[in-house]
Amino acid sequence: MAAIFRPSANLVATSLLLAGWFVLLGLLASWWFWPHTDYAQHLGAAVPQPVPFSHEHHVAGLGIDCRFCHSSVEQSANAGLPATHVCMTCHSQVWTNAALLAPVRESLARDEPLIWRRVADVPDYVYFNHSIHIAKGVGCQSCHGPIAGMALTYKAEPLTMEFCLSCHRNPGPQLRPRSALFDTQWQRGRDTPSPAQLLHDYHVPDRDLTDCSLCHR
Amino acid sequence: MSPLNSRAHLWRSLEEAGGDPGLLARATQEFPLLAKALADPVSRREVLKLMAACMAWSGLAGCDSKFGDALIPPVRMPVNVVPAQPNFFATAQVLGGYAQGIVVEHVMGRPLKVQGNPHHPASLGSTDAYAQALPLDFYDPDRAAQVCVRGNPSDRAAFEAAFSQERARLKARGGAGLRILTGSITSPSLLDRIQSLLLAYPEAAWVGWEPLSRSNAHSGARQTYGSALDTVAHLDRADVVLAFDADLLSTDPGRLRYARDLAARRNPARAKMSRIYAVESTPTLLGCVADHRFIVEPGEVERILPWLLDSVRSESPTAAPAGTRPSWMAALIEDLKSARGKVFIHAGAQHSAAVHAQVHLMNEALQARNATYTLIEAQNAASPAMPAELMRDMHAGKVTHLLMLDTNPMYTAPRSWDFAAALKSVPFSAALSRHLDETAQQTTWFVPLAHSWECWSDARAYDGTVSILQPQAQPLYDGMSPAQLVDRYLQTQSRSSESIVKDFWRPRLSGDFAQTFDTALAQGLLADTGARPSSVAPRASAAPASDSEKSGNPAAPAALSLVLRADPSLWDGRFANNPWLQELPRPLTKDVWGNPLMISPALAAQHQLGTGDVVRLRVGDASVTSPVIILPGQAPRTITALLGSGRAASGRVGDQVGVNFHPFNALPGTVRFEKTDAHMDIATTVHHGLLGAPSEQILRHQDLSEFLGADQTPSAAASPPAATLYQTHPQGPAQWAMSVDLNACIGCNACVIACQAENNIPVVGKAQVLREREMHWLRIDRYLAGDAAAPESFFQPVLCMHCEQAPCENVCPVGATLHDAEGLNLMVYNRCVGTRFCSNNCPYKVRRFNFYAFAHEQHRPRESWNPEVSVRARGVMEKCTYCVQRIAAARIEADRDSKPVGKVTTACEAACPTQAFTFGNLADPKSAVLARKRSPLDFAMLSEEATKPRTSYETKVRNPNPKLKGVA
Amino acid sequence: MSNASETLRADAPVIGPNLNLESMTDRISRIALRERAHAWWWIAFIPSAALTLLLIVAIAYLFYEGIGIWGVNWPVMWGFAILCYVWWIAIASGGTIISALFFLVHAEWRTSINRIAESMMLFGAAAAGIYPVLHLGRPWLFYWLFFYPNTMTLWAQFRSPLLWDFWALFTYVFASVLFWYVGLLPDLASVRDRAERGLKQRMYAVFAMGFRGSSGQWRHLRAVYGVMAAIMTPVVISIHSIVGLDFAGAATTGWHVTQFPPFFVCGALLSGFAIVLLLIIPLRRFLNLEDMVTGRHIGVLAKLLLTSSLLLAYAYLMDAFSACYGGNPGDLALLAARLHGEYAPVYWGAVLFNVLLPQLLWSRKLRVHIPTLMLLSLGVVIGMWMERYLIVVTSLSRPTLVSAWGVFHPTFWDWATLAGTVGLFLSGILLSVRFVPVVAMHEMRALIVSAQARSE
Q1: Chain C neighbours, 3+ Cβ pairs < 8 A
Q2: Quick one: which of B497, B523, B469, B346 has its CA closest to B99?
Q3: Which of A34, B512, B587, C50 gets the most CB atoms within 10 Å of its CB?
Q4: Percent of chain C whose pLDDT exceeds 90
Q5: pTM to 2 decimals?
């Protein structure tokens, strides 16, 4: 009987089938790997803020301690953001009429707060506590990356559950001596105590750090 | 020790903390526009946005608003406010005029959770359901925000103008025609204001009207002792308690303290057990825990009492006409006499003065006074004029100015007053109340009442102790306190509630005022202001003659009688707009959202009534239709109606729920009762009628004799666990567990609301309760044993058992529920996909499911949620977590300075007035929970399921009088 | 057909005498190729399609509102979704048994009805397959039951029978599609060859995937089909045993009985055979297949129906026995409630339809008496649904803790979803009857050849 398709049809059919497979695999792969991309995790992108605050200038440059602005980081779950009043303690003296700082001055004048955008965010069902991490020797950089060098603040670590667990399963390498906790330039050196030693000093192994109840309530 | 003391450094007055009064204002600066926006009802949307902002700040960001990812630091950080750290401020909750000390927990200046004040005699650290529900009361979006004139929006200025004008006219004529109507008041500063007003306006009069009044008790005392007295009981000293229609555990000003003292004598493993006799027509909480419950018709008590009185006075029980004399009296009298000096006899406040008088005499005869109770000068001694006079004057048109302070007569007034008509005859009337309620809608002027968390005030406790009430946040609405309004008659310019309170106390406090006052605020009470026991003696002519005749003619058996009771959930109706309380299963009937008439099984049978059938109730010419619910243990011819429902203008939650029975208060005429063919579904949380006797597997109970007979070896719970094939979970530094003492539980529901408030548990509404979807993590199961006419009842709080071999964990396909190293059975909400297999597999059925987005549909400001607990989404399973957020806080605090974790108190444990719950760490050999689990009474629920629950119970023991075996 | 009556005798041959290769292939292909469908087809299809639409509405509303729209409550957390899932899976499994198991044992009678059995398996599985997802409180997260590298580093939980059920179902649906399609290839090819040039032919050509009947292709096809059949048989047993395990593995009163897996498989057989009967009896009539689907087939199916109903009877007895033997008060209370309590109607309904009525089939006459068979099969389908209701709902409403007893009331949306899946199933069957050869022609040919050989 007469052929229904031209011979080329075979090629078309085969390639279509193959293409179908590739599309399927492609979709599967993207579904798997998309969440791992920097884009999906908002890594490295500076968030627009009411005032282009520069950690680089204030921390690396002027050497202001983290706790000067984030005052409750050692006592509370919440590191705390500086009240307008705190900014003005200096800026009522320096850069008093810098245009960049107008919003700050207005906030104080109008008695209306500055509204900053969250940079390092975790979902609402994650109860991260700053104070315990500081108390156990985890430095700011472990989660906030090279914050001291950021001209504009951006998210440097994924802060996914994977990220948290990677440390909760093996905290040692992230721990620092107490003295170096807020030293933004600190590097693990030859004289630094070994991770095992630090774990022991901070009594970290006393509890199972992968219990769900540690972060989820 | 109490959680408060452990955080004492946080727990002090705002005054002390800030040193300047403006502090409160700034404590809310995380959302400075909030107060403004809230004050302006039109911009509710704005409010939500702002609230979302606060959420973001406290880590509970509402992703759906533009503030979702916002961080909003205050312009000035208030002193002593640490982001996301709680502060605690003492104040008091005032109900029916009397104070119970509470402590309010704040996060970022937002009052969020109520706890008892351990220093306060009426609280000792515990609270009732009403206090627990206060946060929702405070954040109630339906609260009135604006001054109204004849129902139309107006403003303070206009009111001030009109007011001062009227004041001038009144002043001129010495206050003639001015009447002030209030509820019962113990506030010294307010009483002082009123007194000085009465001095300044000699013609004016102050009238007191409290629907659940204690005036009968006072006049009873007057009959006996010649002056109004309050009774302060010490139930822990009483071996035998006899109560007639007791309100000791329900509405008495000392209820929390009494519950604590009573429970101290109810567990034979810990103390010599007391014996409780309850004589009542409708079941009360005390009746349910009593060892003997004698059911009598309301009239009966008047008949029985004289005999009882004579019998306890004379040596031999006086003979009464046979048949009319209850069979149980002889044994009872004997028991009372043998316990001379260790007896306490009590009559509910609604009883007639005569009954109270006779009870006083019986107590005297048994040398109980100053042994098991003391008498003190009545707290609202400066007793106002009776409402009757007011009504007479109003109807006579003698009243030109009527000022109603935090009272709602249009709703609560008895029908006989015909208040509506009377009010029309008053040219200038002003109502000060929290909502634009039934009364406020009828008055010339309406002024929003400041919530007790928004203004300064003071009040006395049942024993006279004074508490200063301090504001807990910047006012959400522009309200006035009663004292402020009264004060406006005396001062030309208005004073702040703060200065009124302070100016009152400044001359009255010894030592450095500022310091004493701050201590008082920090402690929540003014030290030793408790009233001294008065040393009055009963008058010779005290024995009321009238009653002995009455005892001759027994109440006609055919007659029905209607008794009105305070609603265990809604009090007298002031809480009607509080969804937590509307959906709180009533202790005895477990019904919610409505107040069906409670009738006895006998009456139901006689009229072929089933629960939910609608009847028409007539008293004289008044009539009303209401569904009925069958209540075993109810006196056959008695119908019980709960006050507090049927509000017309309480707010979006409480309106048109149930029937208002206030008009039937003291209504003369015979009670008639016919069936209609209507039926109304009654939402109860017991889905197949009231429960029969519980099996040994579920709830164990025994008599004291059995207990004493049995060997008192510590229970298995404390002994090392037997070897098991199951995998056992790794042991962390702490092992959490709970013990629930069934002897202590009085079913008061404080724990249920405490749990709901702490854990962001949504309400679901009547329709969903009817579909068996209530969400309470902690429920109190009620069981009945014996015959339905006079059953023995049991309360059993049921929460997650945190089984060591939890059946729920094996069946979850995504591992959303699993164990942690400290023995907690965790529920990770955000991992749950909602297969609901865990609930099927839970023998205790303690898991609840979000069939809809209940939490987000709830009509509730978002800032009132507890930021420490996830708000669960639709399609997610949830359950009791042993307050894991509190455990986490303690754990972090301990780990921070590497010390063993301290005492953790769950919300239910903290609230419980009787300390039925004990939560703690089994790994700590000194922990209270371990001690309780060692009790010989300890047992595990459904132990056959081999789930090894971490929550165990203590067997219910009753102490019946051997001589009354087999006697009704 | 004149010989309709004698083809209906139970001892009739598997194929009519005057059936030869040509006529058979022609007739079957013509059914697929005819220009416009029969009136009866439209009469059946339109309501089915309407129900399918209803299903779509119900699902959309479910996603919008949440499963609160169903009757499920506390304590009856599982309702229609699970019981209908079990019910449909049973029906699908029955189809698989016929087409796979009886293929392996070379049962001649299976040949002419296996295509219908397979379609039934396919669309039964489809109807069943949507339920487990809809059942979830957060259906859009169903993929959390798979293993995939997520940023949470979380895996599914192996100990849960539900997880295995999910995978078994996934495997089953996937395998059924393949099995059905592989068996279909040569027939699509024959239809293609008979179609006149045009779109229709091209379509068949595409789906036939260039099957030209070369010996190589036949060899491969036979191998694949045989292997698939060998796989399907254990798969179908496993899927339904695992469904049984969902219940047997739970500590719930009335569920934790070890016999559940086999018990469920018996149920599957019963409902499967019933539905096949319900389908082939009208189809042989409407499509004039009397000489291909003869009394022999019907008789055999009737016998199988009887057998499986006896197996089920045993299961029922064991269920009651184990309750009494175990003596667990909860189980006893539940049993009482079923025998003479509020659930008695459902229980005895199930017994009547699944066990008692099928006993009529002991009579040789009734085994080929069309109306009886139709009614019996219909009864069985209903009876099986009742049984699932009994297992899922009534067990849950009577937990050990009396204070948690409750009642289940299905809502409109429960029924709508059930009706919708019925619509889905029927539309699927009807479409396949319309466009796909209703009888596996290539297998029929083999049968005809051997029959002719025997006759000579």
Answers
A1: A, B
A2: B469
A3: B587
A4: 62
A5: 0.91
